[in-house]
Amino acid sequence: MAVTKVSDGAVPDGLGRARSGIGRKSADLVARWSFLMPSIVVLTVMLAYPIYYTIEISFASFDLSTFSAGEWVGWANYEEAIGDYRFWDSLKVTLVYLVIALPLQVTLGFGIAFLINAEWWGRSALRALFIIPMVVAPVVAGGMWRMILDPLWGVMNYWLGLVGIGPLDWFGDPTLAMAAVIMIDTWRWTPFIVLIATAALLALPKDVFEAAKIDGANWWSTLWSVALPLLVPIIAATFVIRWLGAVKMFDIVLAATYGGPGKATSVVNLFIYEEAFRSLRFAESAAMAVIVLALTMILTGFFLYGSRKLEELF
Amino acid sequence: MNARSGLSYKNKSVLGHRVRILAGIVVSIVFLFPIYWMVLTSFKQQVDIFTNPPRFLFTPTIATYVEYMKRADILARIVNTIIVASSSALFSMVVGTMAGYALARIRLKGAQTVGLLILLSRGVPPIALAVPMFLVARKLGLTDKHITLILAYSTFLIPYVMWLMRSFFLSLPKELEESAMIDGCSRYGAFFKIILPISLPGLLSTLIFSMILAWEELLFALVLTNRHASTIPVAIAGIAGDSVNGANWGALTAVGTITVVPVVVFALLVQKWLIKGLADGATKG
Question: Which chain A residues contact residue B130 at CB under 8 A?
Fold first, then answer.
């Protein structure tokens, strides 16, 4: 390093910014941006432009004969979307799903991680097995659980019957259908949280727990005042990651209940999908998509900010 | 466990440990049962599927597989899914890894904003993209083509790769490129000759996760394809949602098994990297 400094007078600040002449500088600038440029180009064309196009359609009438946006209609599509009680219902369904599923999965994930990380010879095998549900396609998960929960032939109702429960009409009753969707989603996603939680638990400093033990702390106060504060940042991060996946909820519902019975499990993504591609109401569904996009962005920003703040606090 | 601790404490602790192991095993069985049941059902005859009580013992048959392979376009769909999943994953790896490197290591004006935008884009609901993509693809005559799906998948794969690789590159010591560039390596030389080779574990786990994500994708495939480029998840959604004949459980479980087993085998083979990549991505974000 010292040798370089003497030889050409450049200031190697770790990023190799050589200040020798305008030409080299601009060439370096091009080289630096060239790393980021491909992704900017692809995402502008494939991500930013479609979002812009959705917004455009949402303010226009949609001409089904030419299959493109027609004349400007102002806020009419938004008024229609906001006035549509089915849209509100689907938002409510989504909210119920998120409010129950996210805390449930994060709590279960960390709890199970604690269980499967007990030290014994089968530990790494258990950990590996927990990868399996995580790589099952959500649409397959929905399909196979539909079979397991079948009211007549399903193995779940058979077992529940053995202990005197049921038969439960999993897909005929609105509350049970929602429970089924949350159960399937939890089955599919909890293993993912288990693996993150495992890494977090293994990274905990051991000496703090030894100290707590020597001080005679019981397991509850060890968990509550020692482990939890240490885990808060990673729990927050896990929550954000899971949130980013959960707002996209579509496949499992489509395969397991198709939003039924009635619209009891019709999450907003499925509702908009139906409006656009079954009812061909592209303008209205574009307005709904923009509303959902805005809500998601605001909440994502809020959660990211919140998790950063938590990280600073703990 | 600890020889110095008192006898009563020791017994209590051993018991607690045993309960913990047992509970862990029970939970694992609960989580694995649905997959076991799916694979089992796929080898049943129709008469063995619809029974009460459910049958665990039966004469296995591969009739469902044979029948469904003949009747439907399932082989073409498998090929399509392989083409789309591997191309979109590779494409996104190239583009996303470079972007991740830029965000982790190269000082650029405005790059932080770009990075934040790309991160936020992971929260974009795909339905907000599916509608316009369908309309544009239809206008340009690009529906039902592999390239359309490959590009559509890059919208969620690139941000994903970028984010994972960024955190991976952040974990590498800075001195690596510094010394390489001082030795006369260009920025690209340092990236390709020094950084990429030692990032191989991170690259592999990210690639595998990307392929799995693309392999499983449903919404874009449902919207952007109908015959020639259609994928397996679409077929499964079709079988599961067949309200006319009711779900054909034999077909559902057979196609489900075909979809899941290769991915599971693959994931178990590379589990060490998967776990590490996943943990790093979450903890070092």
Answer: 273, 276
Q: Output phi, psi for A62, to 5 deg.
A: -110, 125
Dmax (CA) for chain A in angstroms is 85
- Whether A176 shows a pLDDT value over 90: the answer reads yes
pLDDT at A253: 93
Pairwise CA distance, residues A294 & A289, whole Å: 9
For residues A89 and A233, membership in a common domain is answered with yes
Residue A72: strand pairing partners? A60
Q: Decide if A186 is inside a domain.
A: yes
- Under the banding of pLDDT at 50, 70 and 90, the label for residue A178 is very high
Tell me, yes or no, whether A155 and A25 share the same domain: no
Provide the domain count of chain A.
2
Measure A226 CA to nearest chain B CA, in Å: 19
CB contact residues (below 8 A), chain B span 192-211, against chain A: none
Residues A191 and A234 in one domain: yes
pTM for this one? 0.87
Is B155 part of the contact surface with chain A (CB cutoff 8 Å)? Answer: yes
What's the mean pLDDT in A27-44? 86
Residue A67, in any domain of the structure? no
Distance CA B239, CA B38 (A): 14
Query: Does residue A64 sit within a domain?
Result: no
Count contacts between A and B (CB, < 8 Å). Answer: 324
